[in-house]
């Protein structure tokens, strides 16, 4: 009960100090408020960015590997011309790989042609992307259809003039009417719409299917040079759910070396890219941002800590005679010590709460002005309060200790 009474009295003393010396206390709390605001604002923004980017990365598939010419991450001092001279993944590589691989639930050969125009009667949509893929595209990519169906095996094999539209394209061409069964014109050919992708919305990596048109790769062979580097040919492999990504990668590396007839000890002429490469790069980037937040906010908190310590020394000086009376009535040293430490913590928590309030208001303002919504999570709220408690304890200890060591006679005489 004494502890609770001490805490209650400390809060009362803190608020009395704030009420009686508003300007002095607010100026001292300002540094704590700015420090907490800076650190928590940076951490909240980083956590929000990380969550959105990770969701975008997860859409690519955590158990998916992309066989491409260029790696997503370059090593130190690696000559770029070695990558330039690599061959593009080919249909021959894809067919050989599909026949031999054992630990994959889907293997696709894909190309992408950007900035195209699709037409339906007098309506048209510009700036779309045309994706051509082999039949297992529905096994290697995560998507849902809001209308229609996926390609049949015969349609994929025979290169039938059919396509699946993104939801934005369907809305732009048909204005809410049913898209399935209608014929659209793209790449100089007429194709029948057999399905419409579910609306996904734009993500941080731009992997949305909303403005994509998907066609069979066999059909694309008749209208595009699918081996041209400008179309970014790649082979996508999704491993079985019961097999680790490392096992799939190891099998792929061995098969691709065999298909390309690369001798043991020779460098590979292909890249195996996976989402963990992006995740690791994001982690490194966000670590640097977090460190910057700690450094910038740390200076403000350091200044705030000295300000709180100064307030507490002034508070001890102003209440020296009260301390003497309390000690003469039997108050122990620890009672005086805890009283001033709790008061210091109360002041710091007040500054921390003001900083958290500013972060919350900033998040609301950014969310209202843009589509980016910063989330102030419970972990960051707890971190802000925790930092405030630690700074309050450190800043208040020496003034509290000096108060607890006062001689009661000398204190009353003052």
UniProtKB/TrEMBL annotation:
Keywords: Cell membrane, Membrane, Transmembrane, Transmembrane helix. Its main location: membrane. Residues 295-408 form the ABC3 transporter permease C-terminal domain. InterPro entries: ABC3_permease_C, MacB_PCD, Macrolide_Exporter_MacB. Residues 25-254 form the MacB-like periplasmic core domain. The chain crosses the membrane at residues 27-46, 291-313, 334-366, 372-398. One of its GO terms (cellular component) is plasma membrane. It is a multi-pass membrane protein. It comes from the Bacteria. GO terms for molecular function: transmembrane transporter activity. It is found in: Cell membrane. Pfam families: FtsX, MacB_PCD. Belongs to the ABC-4 integral membrane protein family. This is Putative ABC transport system permease protein.
């Amino acid at each position: 009960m004494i502890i609770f009474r001490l805490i209650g009295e400390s809060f009362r003393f803190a608020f009395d100090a704030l009420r009686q010396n508003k300007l002095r206390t607010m100026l001292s709390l300002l540094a704590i408020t700015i420090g907490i605001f800076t650190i928590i604002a940076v951490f909240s923004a980083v956590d929000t960015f990380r969550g959105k980017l990770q969701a975008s990365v997860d859409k690519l598939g955590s158990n998916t590997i992309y066989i491409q010419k260029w790696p997503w991450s370059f090593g130190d001092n690696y000559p770029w011309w070695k990558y330039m001279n690599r061959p593009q993944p080919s249909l021959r590589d894809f067919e050989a790989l599909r026949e031999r691989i054992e630990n994959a639930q889907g293997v696709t050969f894909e190309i992408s042609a950007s900035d195209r125009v699709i037409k339906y009667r007098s309506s048209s949509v510009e700036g779309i992307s045309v994706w051509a893929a082999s039949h297992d595209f529905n096994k290697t990519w995560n998507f849902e259809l809001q209308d229609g169906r996926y390609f049949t095996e015969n349609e994929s094999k025979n290169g039938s003039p059919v396509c699946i539209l993104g939801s934005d394209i369907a809305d732009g061409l048909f204005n809410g009417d049913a898209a399935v069964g209608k014929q659209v014109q793209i790449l100089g050919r007429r194709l029948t719409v057999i399905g419409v992708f579910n609306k996904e919305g734009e993500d941080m990596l731009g992997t949305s299917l909303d403005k994509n048109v998907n066609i069979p790769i066999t059909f694309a062979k008749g209208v595009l040079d699918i081996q041209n580097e400008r179309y970014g040919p790649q082979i996508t492999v999704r491993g079985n759910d019961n097999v680790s990504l490392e096992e799939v990668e190891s099998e792929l590396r061995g098969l691709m070396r065999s298909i390309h007839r690369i001798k043991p000890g020779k460098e590979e002429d292909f890249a195996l890219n996976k989402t963990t490469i992006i995740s690791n790069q994001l982690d490194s980037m966000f670590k640097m941002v977090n460190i910057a937040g700690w450094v910038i906010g740390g200076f403000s908190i350091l200044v705030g800590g000295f300000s709180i310590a100064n307030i507490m020394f002034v508070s001890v000086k102003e209440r020296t005679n009260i301390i003497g009376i309390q000690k003469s009535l039997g108050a122990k040293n620890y009672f005086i010590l805890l009283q001033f430490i709790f008061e210091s913590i109360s002041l710091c928590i007040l500054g921390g709460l003001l900083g958290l309030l500013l972060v919350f208001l900033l998040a609301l303002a950014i969310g209202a002005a843009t589509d980016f919504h910063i989330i102030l999570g419970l972990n960051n709220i707890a971190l802000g309060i925790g930092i405030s408690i630690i700074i309050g304890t450190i800043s208040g200890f020496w003034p509290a200790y000096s108060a607890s060591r006062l001689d009661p006679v000398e204190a009353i005489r003052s």
